[in-house]
Amino acid sequence: MTATIERGSATAPVNSPKKAPARKRPGGFLGSSNGKKVVMAVTGAVMVLFLVAHMLGNLKIFFGRDSFNEYAHALRTLLEPIAPYRTLLTILEIVLVVSVVMHMWAAISLSRRASHARPVKYVAKKSQANGYATHIMRFGGVTILLFLIWHLLDLTFGVVNPEGVNSAPADRMISGFDASRWWVTLIYVVAVVMVGLHLRHGVWSAFQTLGWANRNRYRALRVTAAALSLVLVVGFLAPPLAITFGVIK
Amino acid sequence: MKYTEGPEIRDTKAPEGPIEGRWEKRKFSARLVNPANKRKLHVIVVGTGLAGGSAAATLGELGYNVTSFCYQDSPRRAHSIAAQGGINAAKNYRGDGDSIYRLFYDTVKGGDFRARESNVYRLAEVSVNIIDQAVAQGVPFAREYGGLLDTRSFGGAQVSRTFYARGQTGQQLLLGAYQALERQIAAGTVTMHTRHEMLDLIVSDGRARGVIVRDMVTGEIERHFADAVVLATGGYGNVFFLSTNAKGCNTTAIWRAHERGAYFANPCYTQIHPTCIPVSGEYQSKLTLMSESLRNDGRVWVPLKKNDTRAPGDIPEEERDYYLERIYPAFGNLVPRDIASRAAKNVCDEGRGVGPGGLGVFLDFRDAINRLGRDAVEKKYGNLFEMYERITGENPYDVPMRIYPAVHYTMGGLWVDYDLQSTIPGLFVIGEANFSDHGANRLGASALMQGLADGYFVLPTTIGDYLADGPFGDVDEEAVAEAEIKVRSKIERLMSVNGTRTPDSFHRELGKLMWDYCGMERTEESLRKALERIPELREEFWQNVKVTGTAEELNQVLEKAGRVADFFDLAELMCLDALVRTESCGGHFRAESQDADGEALRDDENFAHVSAWERTPDGPVLHKEPLEYEYVKMTQRSYK
Amino acid sequence: MNLTLKVWRQSGPSDKGRMVTYHVEDVSPDMSFLEMLDVLNERLILEGDDPVAFDHDCREGICGMCGMVINGVAHGEQRATTTCQLHMRHFEDGATITIEPWRAAPFPVVKDLVVDRSAFDRIIQAGGFVSVPAGSAPDAHSIPVRKEDADAAFDAATCIGCGACVAACPNGSASLFTAAKITHLSLLPQGQPERLSRAKAMVDQMDAEGFGGCTNTGECTAVCPKGIPLDAIAQMNSDYLKANSK
């Protein structure tokens, strides 16, 4: 008996092999995990450059209050009279705010992706890679954000500063880190060290993300990242510690 | 076990004429399929190793509608991946006198004059294309500083024709084929079913028209139909339980095709590889091969005295027996596999073996380290030494390695003609699964060559000649139903025994029996004993095996039990074939047939033939295919 | 040796799963980890229990089929070793060993320690190949390749697709796997024509499968049985960036 079985198909229920999930990439490049990593790297780099400039500015306090105040003033009057007062600073602020927001957006989005990728946690899990800094990036980032808010309220807007809003920047700085307010200095120290750890992995990670790393450069890149972090930590901690311990009055 | 002799069988597909022109002739005479019709022609390929993976990919490229199956979770895991040494090709890039003819000659001679000249010549001819294909795919073969491909001499060859990718040549070649296959899957020409095991062949109106498979995850029994079926399911070395094969390697696909009418050729030809890590205890689940290349610099020895328990370092030079160098001064440690293996067995039988149970010989690198320096040795063999240390806990830089022969490859398999078609029209068999081009003994670095030659170049041409008559219309429903019922009832039977022994314990016992009675050395007595014992054990298996769980889920015990059941039947045929072939040849050594020095003695007058076994309700029927040698004169091999 | 095993048991994809404790006695230090599990399974079968399902095949560290998280580490703490090559001599007598499957959403558990890794195949399908139909290849010596490039390509090409990188990554990222193939083919002249389209397609497929993003923690390369280096990921990033800036 010849039957009506269609040639080349199967009559029994067949699990057809799982089809590839539809490619859904909201937002193209920025929607991809790699694109988000690039956002992290580029915005991170912008912030690192800012930190370097910020640190150099801070160190002016060692040349006296006037030197520091002049620097603060210059930031606002740069490009005058071609452009109005505070033009450059405003542009910088916008760039920074955009960077912070995008850095956070990418971080949150990658972290959500990660938790979706591992819905069931391990009962036992042991890290095999050295360097705990790599594992506290998200925690570190949140800590730095909290500090940033405090820092702006303290020294930029002067809301929580003993000198108030309408004071000279150098006065705000020196009063802010007065020995009587040692706990402010302590918060500052902890935060800056956190920034240093964040950068030690972050800077290296940016090189890797942007595809500049290879095995011949690994050592150099790691040393660069660590050195840059160290310089920033020392540079940022020098003024407040000098003030708290009375070296600068 | 009774058998009868049937009419002779002939390979009718190999063209006549000068051997150099035969493949060209066949390629031209093979009919072509209209490109527009290829989509309508459906081919099933079972197995995704070098042969199956490359065949499925190539058939897909040609435009056929291909369905591919493998039992692993991905086609990339087929056991071809474990091949270490390399792949032969007659490129003559070294200018050292290699040629297609020389590779052909070496392979016929190495196979101990039990392979077809036409097939072997084609293999040598196609070998050069394989290297081109693999390089174009991005296979990272070893290269020299000038940027050209490096080669080495391997397994006793006197020319340097073996291409390699460190100790992972099989892996790299398989990944090349796998990637080509995945490309076709993406293109929609190949439909891939992983974790599916073929359990029967559908033969309708005398043609192979499909397969019954089990979805190993859900337990569902599925039917798949096609115009031709290609089996590329590898060898059956796991009949010995302990072998260098992967744990999942099995004979089920080819055995069930044999039950459907495909002849099984030369089942007794098994290759025992001389350099494997010895068994360390009863729990041993598999054996690990150490690349044969180690014999290039390592020296094989055992103590002169029996039962010498001193540490190897304490045995002075004059009390060591470098037996290969002593017996075979011309080839020394580089004698072919079968000879090295048997020599190791002999010294161990004399009580001079080393390590647990006295089943091992030393492979010593002391002299190589002294001569070349530790760094040079590390550069050449570092990864192998590491592997050895990982498994044994001993450091081969300080203590000589211990090695012992283990089952590695099976030259026998389903009988195929020059077109690689079995005795069932529409059933093609490629790679290790067919009875192949290696005769009674395969040379090192030739398995990869054959698998890829079959898959990339031979089958895609010859299958077209068969498919030119297709499509073949509807499949006989009764045949399908019968096959499916057979599969289901076998599974039900296995599930219902509920005895007291695990499938593995039966497999171990069968393996030991095969190793003892049908292993490196066979005698009429041992084979008769095995033929008596196997049916008893099989009987006990069907009475007393225990399979847990259900058939409708992932059930690794059930999978194992089904495979062991087929191994029993195969083991019986192997022993019968070994018993009937009273000569010694290649991997088949009959103790009764040896010369004064204890070397294998062929009997060309009575056994210059392929033994192709047919399975009938009245017992096995032997069909002989006479072998004729026009080009290579039959001589007794000598490596002294 | 006597051991206590805490093994993840899950009868199927819909089962919630749980850790189950077993005691295994008379384990030889020369056994491989999988042989130790064989011993447990033989006993479970005779007791009428379902044996622990786990994937394995070649048992010589090359097929990539085996893999479990042993005491919190993919393939166990022995470096550059697959589960099948791990031997019991590296464990203390009386030790407790936790055994879990790879954990990642794109690797759903099939049963016990068996997971479905077909996502890896689909990443390769997206572009992990050189398009060269059989028979169309030029002579192998027509394109010389610098030895350094061939060797580096080989290092990346040794990936066995076991999935340990995904299992170890805190983000469940498949970057090392994907990058290994991209790097292998990127370093060879044969891979150049499709280089950028390949990187783009494979990375996008990796995302589509639901793997996490890479945060350069290096956990993957630390557990990789073949030691695939981290700079493969930098290569992938570079190719992906170039592909997207065109």
TrEMBL record, chain A:
The protein's name: Succinate dehydrogenase
GO cellular component terms listed in the entry, alphabetical order: membrane
Segments forming a coiled coil: none
Superkingdom per UniProt: Bacteria
NCBIfam families linked to this entry: sdhC_b558_fam
Region (Disordered): 1-29
Keywords for the protein's UniProt record, in alphabetical order: Membrane, Transmembrane, Transmembrane helix
Lineage: Bacteria, Bacillati, Actinomycetota, Actinomycetes, Streptosporangiales
Transmembrane segments: 38-63, 83-108, 129-153, 182-199, 220-248
InterPro entries, A to Z: Cytochrome_b-558, SQR/QFR_C/D
UniProtKB/TrEMBL annotation, chain B:
Listed GO CC annotations: plasma membrane
Coiled coil: none
Domain FAD-dependent oxidoreductase 2 FAD-binding as annotated: residue spans: 42-448
InterPro entries xref list: FAD-dep_OxRdtase_2_FAD-bd, FAD/NAD-bd_sf, Fum_R/Succ_DH_flav-like_C_sf, Fum_Rdtase/Succ_DH_flav-like_C, SdhA/FrdA/AprA, Succ_DH/Fum_Rdt_flav_su, Succ_DH/fumarate_Rdtase_cat_sf
Cell membrane recorded as keyword: yes
Source domain of life: Bacteria
EC number of this enzyme: 1.3.5.1
Enzyme class: oxidoreductase
Cofactor dependency: FAD
Entry membrane topology: Peripheral membrane protein
Protein known as: succinate dehydrogenase
Protein's organism: Nonomuraea aridisoli
TrEMBL record, chain C:
Gene Ontology molecular function: 2 iron, 2 sulfur cluster binding; 3 iron, 4 sulfur cluster binding; 4 iron, 4 sulfur cluster binding; electron transfer activity; metal ion binding; succinate dehydrogenase (quinone) activity
InterPro entries named in the record: 2Fe-2S_ferredoxin-like_sf, 2Fe-2S_ferredoxin-type, 2Fe2S_fd_BS, 4Fe4S_Fe-S-bd, 4Fe4S_Fe_S_CS, Beta-grasp_dom_sf, Helical_ferredxn, SDH/FRD_Iron-Sulfur
Domain of life: Bacteria
Entry note: cofactor: Binds 1 [4Fe-4S] cluster. Binds 1 [2Fe-2S] cluster.
Location of the 2Fe-2S ferredoxin-type domain: 18-103
EC number(s) given by UniProt: 1.3.5.1
Domain 4Fe-4S ferredoxin-type: start-end pairs: 150-179
Keywords: 2Fe-2S, 3Fe-4S, 4Fe-4S, Iron, Iron-sulfur, Metal-binding, Oxidoreductase, Tricarboxylic acid cycle
Classification via SUPFAM superfamilies: 2Fe-2S ferredoxin-like, alpha-helical ferredoxin
One BP term from GO: respiratory electron transport chain
Catalysed reaction equations from the record: a menaquinone + succinate = a menaquinol + fumarate
Cofactors that this protein relies on: [4Fe-4S] cluster; [2Fe-2S] cluster; [3Fe-4S] cluster
Alphabetized Gene3D superfamilies for the sequence: 3.10.20.30, Alpha-helical ferredoxin
Family listed: Belongs to the succinate dehydrogenase/fumarate reductase iron-sulfur protein family.
Protein's recorded name: Fumarate reductase iron-sulfur subunit
Organism encoding this protein: Nonomuraea aridisoli
Origin organism lineage: Bacteria, Bacillati, Actinomycetota, Actinomycetes, Streptosporangiales
